[in-house]
Amino acid sequence: MSRKLGRTNSAMLGALREGRENKPVGESALPVSFQNRNGRTAQVEVDSIATNPDQPRRDFDKAELTALTESIERYGLLEPIGVKPLPNGLYQLAYGERRLRAVRALGQPTVTAVVLDADAPADEIALVENLLRSDLSPFEVADGFARIMETRGWSQGDISRHLGIAKSEVSRTLKVLDLPARIRAEYLQVQVPMRVLRDIAALKDDAAQTAAWESAKRTYAGAEVESGEGVKAPKTKARRPSEDPAEIAHSTLPKRIARSVLTTRDALVLLRTEPTGKPLADTDRTLLREMRDAIDALLMDEAVG
């Protein structure tokens, strides 16, 4: 990895958070300055682009891909993909596989691409680009970390330094790879927050993990989800955090604050799963933005600290 890319990852995360509200649908999550510093934009023949073997995303939602294809057909490609030149004159995809798949489905002969330097770390760029988009599942993030550690001989500390992520977060993310295969399979149906999945992974045995997973499914599914034994979990409302001390057990926050944080989390979940049917008032939007900014500041302080 180049030193320049390593130094700018934390800045990229901050730039994304500051500008994401004003970006048109489909516009790149990567800051323009990052794209321009690391490549030139060109029209590249679609048939000359090979897929990226280090692509961190493994699951591609068919409905989302169809919607993306229809959007590109109607409005054009609003953001370029990223490629790097190969010695044989062809290109390897660095990021933007869903966009490339959509362009191929439309039969378009060329695609707008940022052509990166030949020595650009495609695996790392793909992981960073998807992390900036919040576009990967916890398992895909963990797979990406593990793959870079294996191929480059990196430690968890190396990932922390290069990607601007707290070492404790890297460690907890990697633990999700130890979860039973059943949980990973069912995650596609019930996409619980990363924090909850990592808390489950921190439990000591499969039985405890399975019990915690069933609880998480009931909390976040909002629908019936078939368990590994073919039994469907009933619909139920999220429980108050104070009624579920297991969620607080792994927190390093004072219990009073942890309960307040989890209560707020559950309130936001209810707003998403049981909307009021009324638009947010300006005061509501201001309050939510202030909460988001405070959370982002805390996470960034931990990442660079």
UniProtKB/TrEMBL annotation:
InterPro entries cross-referenced by the UniProt entry: Chromosome_partition/occlusion, HTH_ParB/Spo0J, ParB/RepB/Spo0J, ParB/Sulfiredoxin_sf, ParB_N
Any one cellular-component term (Gene Ontology) = chromosome
What ranges does the record give for the region Disordered, renumbered to this chain? 1-31, 224-247
Q: Which UniProt keywords apply?
A: Chromosome partition
Per the database record, which ranges form the ParB-like N-terminal domain?
42-131
Q: Show the Gene3D superfamilies listed in the entry.
A: 1.10.10.2830, 3.90.1530.30
An example GO BP is: chromosome segregation
Family annotation (Pfam families): HTH_ParB, ParB_N
Q: Which domain of life is it from?
A: Bacteria
Q: Which GO terms describe its molecular function?
A: DNA binding
The family assignment reads: Belongs to the ParB family.
This chain belongs to the protein called ParB/RepB/Spo0J family partition protein
Species of provenance = Azospirillum griseum
